[in-house]
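Appendix B. Raw example, untouched.
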Amino acid sequence: MQGRTRIGLLAAAALLTSACHATFAPAVRSPHGGEPGRLKQGEMALGGEVLLAPGGGPVWGPAVSYSALDWLQIEAGSDVLGPGGEGNTWVLGFVGTRFTPYAKRVAGPLHLALDVGLGAGVGAGGSLCDNDPLDETTGKSACDVYDDRTWDERLAYGGYVDLGLGASLDWEKFSIGALVRSRVRISEATGIPVTIWPSAVGGIEIGIYDIVFVHCTGGYASYHNDLDEEHGPIVDIGIRAVFDVTGSSEERSPKVAESSGPRLRLRQ
C-alpha cells in the first residue's frame, strides 16, 4: 500500500498500523491472564491487567474469576481501550469459562498445569478507516470506505478461545513460575468486516503466600480482515488476589492431593 507510515494504534494488540488508516473490529479479552491452575473450588480471584505496545495506548482489563469446581472456573471482566481519538477507542464486557484438566505436583516443589478458556463479549468500538472525519474543505474522507460513524456508534461483539501452560516452583510462602498462553479472538462491529486477532505470550508469575500473584508476559499479536491487517509486539502486566469466598476451603498451601474428578489434583 502506497505511503505507509508507522503510527501508534491504540488497539488490543496496540499494534503498528499505517497511514492508510486502521480498520478493525475490537478484540474481546485483550490481556492474556496469568498462570493456570491457581484456583480451587470455592475460591475467587480479583485482579486487573494492562496491555502495552510500542507507540500505542494501554488496554485495561479488570476481571473476576470464580472456581465453581476445582477444574471449572467462571470468568467475567471488561476491556477498556482509549480514549485515543475517534477511531481508537472501545469498551467491551465479556463472560467466559475456563477448564483446568491438568494441574499436578510432579516432583518436589515443581507444579505443572494446563487450562483452556473460551468466552464471548459485547460492547461498543472499532475503527473503519480510523473513523476519520470528513475534511471540512472538501467534504470528503481520506478513505473510500468511510461511513461517518464514531466508535460509540458501532455495536461490537465476538468471542475468544485460548490455551495456557504453566510450570512453577511452589513453596509455602513464595512461588515463581513460567507460563505461555495463546489466544484467538474473532469479532465484528457495525460497518466493519469480521476481524481475527491471534496472539501468543510467554513470561513469569510470582506468588506471595499463594494469595497474591503478579505476572509479566511479552509476545506478539496481529489482526486480519478483508480491508486491513497489522502485527506487532505486546506486553502484559497484571496482578490478582485469591480469596476463599465460601469458607469451605482449607488454609491455602502448595500441598497436593489426587482428585477422582476431571481435574487430576486438588490444591490443598
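End of appendix B.
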